[in-house]
Amino acid sequence: MSATLSSARTRAALRTTARVSVDLLLILALLAVSLWLLGRMWSVVWPLVVGLLLTTLTWPLARFLRRRGWPAALAASLVTVVFLLVAAGIVALIAVPMASQTDELTDGVGEGIQKLREWAAGPPLNIGDDQITGAVDSGMARVQNSVGSVVDAVATGVGTVVNGLVTAVLALFLMFFFLKDGPRFLPWLTRQLPGRLAKDVPVLVARSWNTLGSFVRSQALVGLLDAVFIGLGLWILGVPLVLPLAVLTFVSAFVPIVGALFAGFVAVLIALVSNGLTDALITLAIIVVVQQLEGNVFQPIVQSRGLGLHAAVILLAVTLGGSLAGIVGSLLAVPVAALIAVVWNYVREQLSDPPREPEAETAAPG
């Protein structure tokens, strides 16, 4: 006999599904409005985010000085100055080698292009010089026909640089104030919030701060180790632009998985153009070995607690962030995913049933 559907249970299931669907639509609408407001206020939010990331990186030094009796303002000022000096040194490490080796790299690129043309002219492609010249001429014609777009792109690039400088200055000022007045924030926030929020929000803020600080500092240390080992290998091989490539490796470490692939691709490309195929393959081998050491040795030791995120979740978060907001989205994807996990874990803790107390054993009748 086949069982018949219960009309009462069917209606109840449909009503439940409808309620859940309406709730999900309301949540999605609220999320869309929040993202829209975030986009409208991005000129203020972005310096705030950068300032927070810089604060998590520099707070240990400020905390060390404050525990040694330094005034808050003096400790924050010294840490800010030290950070500026380190940042200026990193910029110098990138700019000076690139300026001194530009001619060498340009010649190498020219030789590499010539080798590619010779390879393309032979079997199996058998592409003649006339075809290559025609393709180059066609590309030049397209560039000439889009002069206006190029000018607009240059203007946009100049505007981006100016906005970047403004963001950097604001982030530095915010970092100083966060280092100086940060410990007062949670007590102040507790006094401002009513009822249950006075307990929940400070706990979430404290957990989020610890997670964000753990991520930034561990990624910085792992990136430094990667930069040292990969830079040493490039220096032994005689690859040009060793310092800029090492700095690129360090910066790319803040974008897990994707950043390492990008930095490795750039290093292998420069080794191929400047030193040839053999050194490029050796460079690739060095990068693969270092990345394996990072994933299996450096990362577990440095980031023992971790973020609680699976590698697949990290990869999807970086991909989604990059598609939504480019480089900025890729940079912020993993911290945002980790903070969402913190909020979800706390909400789950609050919604879970408390553990049952063991029932008292009843005495057996005598």
Automatic annotation (TrEMBL):
The keyword Transcription regulation does not apply. The lineage of its organism: Bacteria, Bacillati, Actinomycetota, Actinomycetes, Kitasatosporales. Belongs to the autoinducer-2 exporter (AI-2E) (TC 2.A.86) family. Keywords: Cell membrane, Membrane, Transmembrane, Transmembrane helix, Transport. It is a multi-pass membrane protein. It holds the Pfam family AI-2E_transport. The chain crosses the membrane at residues 20-38, 44-62, 74-96, 153-179, 220-243, 249-273, 280-302, 314-347. Coiled coil: none annotated. It comes from Streptomyces ziwulingensis. It is found in: Cell membrane. This is AI-2E family transporter.
